[in-house]
Amino acid sequence: MSIAITLPQLLRRNAERMPERAALREKDLGIWQPYSWRSYWEEVRDFASGLAASGFAPGDKLSVIGENRPRLYFAQLAAQSLGGIAVPVYQDAIATELAYVLDHAETSVVVAENQEQVDKILSLKDRLPLLKLVVYDDPRGLRNYHDPILKPYEAVAAEGREFAAAHPGYVEAAIARGRPDDVTLFSYTSGTTSRPKGVMLSHANLLSAAAVLAEAEGVRPDDEHLAYLPMAWVGNSLLSLALHLWVGFTVSFPEKPETLQRDLRELGPTIALAPPRYWENALTAIMVRAADATPLKRHVFDFFRRVAERAQLCGTEGRPVPLGLRLSHAIGEVLVYGPLRDQLGLRRARLVYTGGAPLGTEIFRFFRSVGINLKQAYGATELSGLCSVQPEDEVDLDTVGRAFGGVEIRIDDTGEVLVRSGGVFKGYYKQPEATSAAITEDGWFRTGDAGLIDRRGHLVIVDRAKDVGKLADGTALAPQFLENKLKFSPYIGEAVVFGDAQPFVAAIIAIDAATVGNWAERRNLAYTSFQDLSARAEVRELIRDEIRKCNAALPTPIRLRRFLVLNKEFDADDDEITRTRKIRRRFVAEKYGAVVEAFYRDAADVELSTEITYEDGRKAMLHSTLTIGDVDEPAPAAEMAAPVGRLVPVPAEG
Amino acid sequence: MALDFGTRAADMPDDAVLTVTAVSKRFGGVRAVEEVSIAVRRGAIASIIGPNGAGKTSLLNMISGFYKPDSGVITFEGRDITRARPADVAALGIARTFQNIALFGGMTVLDNIMLGRHVRMKAGVLSSFVYWGLAQREEVAHRARAEELIDFLELQDLRKQQTSALAYGLRKRVELARALALDPKLLLLDEPMGGMNQEEKEDMARYIIDVNEQWGTTIILIEHDMAVVMDISDRVSVLDRGRKIAEGTPFEVQRDPGVIHAYLGGHHEQEWAA
């Protein structure tokens, strides 16, 4: 699809065509307050004029940092109106990460949500020579800040109105000069392997990704979306910016992160996209509440959960659902599924996606079985977001669906997935080598994912191409597949699986503090801290049981044999996971090299010194001796002695 | 220390919003407060510190009208409030929080805050009945103010929660919101950080400073945590056994040998300096 319009041009068009319709909605003083398309445009115009008055020129970069707030969107579109580039950054990034991105992007204006973010930016000021202006939305606590670089949002908008009076039509003319092919947004990749890379996206990139999604999924102007994703994530720019402008539906903003669940219930959004982590957490929360419920309620929940799963299975296998099951399912709808969807704020949800990383099949199946139309989508920052999704009537737990119309997908001879579409990015900012390595001469983007296309034309992603390994006996091993299976357990927060070129599979497990803590309390197991809890023999036993359950569904060679319960959670501040909660496998393997070595040396425990980073950037060392757990299956030695490829019979487990 | 505890009205700053002059209070044979004089500047954060039983809370109770002084004079904005009743003191714009939380546990956060607006509500039973529109407009305006406070103290996610179900630190915050609902000119805080952990204390200190900056509210603070007092106060008065033994900036008070001796009992100079 060819796009002949820019984002700001689209905003103006929407403001003309439907001036009074609600474009955005925010909760102010406890009441949902709409911004019409006309006021959206006026706010953008005023701020753009204010930026122009302060000398913001085409090609200049403006960063926004904070939770989703209307003004951060006004600021982004204002910069884009003047031919500038919006660079949203992660609001929870620590100072050094932030300094890298802002410096690399050459940001000259930062629009910050509040004092917390302003403090962070001011602390980096000396390292950012190009930074000229820091604008803040919420003035609270900033009264006695006298840095000349600081300005309240209102002041910039007021200067803008003066500027516009003196230069009528300035912003409108700048918008008219914009070309769809201009770069308009840098989306920094979360970088599982290296420093973040600045993905340059044009108006046409973002809008064509939005257009194919709208077309394939039938997105409507009366849809509702609640913007709670990190603004720096490309999925957010796709939904809350590009798709929002393209289709013209209403985007609302949560009052604050803590009220998200209530805001979801109040609004009942019809479109939702969330990374797997969100669904994992939601499932965990449901399981915890079910476990805490009275025995009667728990039995009702468990019973109808099984009913839902059986009905779901009939559906996917194409068998008719037996009458009895259908009846139970109808009762379950009233007693369990409906209320559950309501609690999750997904009662009206029509289009629900998980994307960014694979979601474990069991988690996926659970949400679908209770009537949430959760679909796996596939995409990449370099593709302006999504490029494929499961078609409505062909939802399959193992695939990421079929390419949208206008998107081409092929698998090259090494098994890597290649995509060509209007969404393919313009390149990595200031990294031409990386760009030419990622985009082929004829415009295909190398995703770095290993995959295949099944009989129906669905794309199946196996793992990151570089992560797929082989056990010593030649059995193929996709670590992520196993990790997702493990993470279905409510007690397992994160897992990292090892086994490439090794005789068996082992995993480092980070327990879920909330559920395991809860479990411990129910057992009157006293503990002082996460570290203490994770080192308990009882907890190791609990995790061992969970791994056994997981193993039961796996072919023998890739069953987990050894594991370690880590004494901390994987933390983005320690570089172990990305801000979008993807494991940095290589980094973890390196950092916990001693553990991996101990796994395969058959050691009973391991000395571990890990560096942890506090939220304010201070670092500390954590020394401890951790016990490695074994899962009772044939000893690794016996396994190794067996001929390559032979399956060793496994004793039945009690 | 040869401090003159007599009438020092001449020394009182001209812009004092509250002056306490030679106030005394006895309970039977116990001299809880003796000849204490304090002046608080408009817009200041003034702290009163001292060991247990020094008379801090008694002094606060006299300012807010809960106790009547045996002798001495208290004026607020030039008006004598020595004998005023608590409700009248509140109506003049003096609000307080209590050492032991005094909230209505069965009511929601929002209702507790709305209750704090009660003094400011004009429509009585009859007028509410007759001038329905007026009463409703008033209710809306008060609700808007309550929402501003909820926003300010970041209680959005707790609006409809019963206060009895909240954690201690949060209840303290709700109590502050309720006191602020009075739109006070002077806010009396009796150990707002008592029983809090470090993080909660830092949050509360932040809110106190924010209240002071945002609305220019004058604040009198009784607190045990020295680090907090020294951090956020403009002026500190030290009481010991009912008497004021020192007064000054945090820097001056910290180095006052009389204070070090009386308050810490002698050999703790390093701790003070830390």
Describe this structure in words.
The complex is a heterodimer of chains A (654) and B (274). Chain A is α/β, with parallel strands linked by helices. Chain A folds into 3 domains: 7-260, 3-Layer(aba) Sandwich (Rossmann fold); 279-464, 3-Layer(aba) Sandwich (Rossmann fold); 469-641, ANL, C-terminal domain (GMP Synthetase, Chain A, domain 3, 2-Layer Sandwich). Chain A contains 22 helices and 28 strands. In chain A, the strands form 7 sheets. Chain A has a 5-stranded parallel beta sheet with strand order 4-3-5-6-7, with helices on both faces. Chain A has a 5-stranded mixed beta sheet with strand order 12-13-14-15-16. In chain A, α1 packs parallel to α9 (234-247), α2 packs across α6 (153-166) and α12 (295-317) crosses α13 (323-343). The longest helix of chain A is centred in the middle third of the chain and has 23 residues, at 295-317. The model of chain A is unreliable at 634-654 (pLDDT under 50). Chain B has helices at residues 56-63, 86-92, 109-116, 125-130, 132-152, 168-180, 198-215, 226-232, 250-254, 257-264, 269-273; strands at 16-27, 30-41, 45-49, 71-76, 79-80, 94-97, 186-190, 218-222, 235-240, 243-248. In chain B, α3 packs parallel to α6 (168-180). In chain B, β1 (16-27) and β2 form a beta hairpin. Chain B has 2 domains: 1-93 and 184-274, Rossmann fold; 101-183, 3-Layer(aba) Sandwich (Rossmann fold). With 274 residues, chain B is α/β, with parallel strands linked by helices. In chain B, the strands form 2 sheets. In chain B, strands 6-7-8-3-9-10 form a 6-stranded mixed beta sheet, sandwiched between helices. A 4-stranded antiparallel beta sheet of chain B has the order 2-1-4-5, covered by helices on one side. Chain B is globular. The interface between A and B is medium-sized, with 11 and 15 residues.
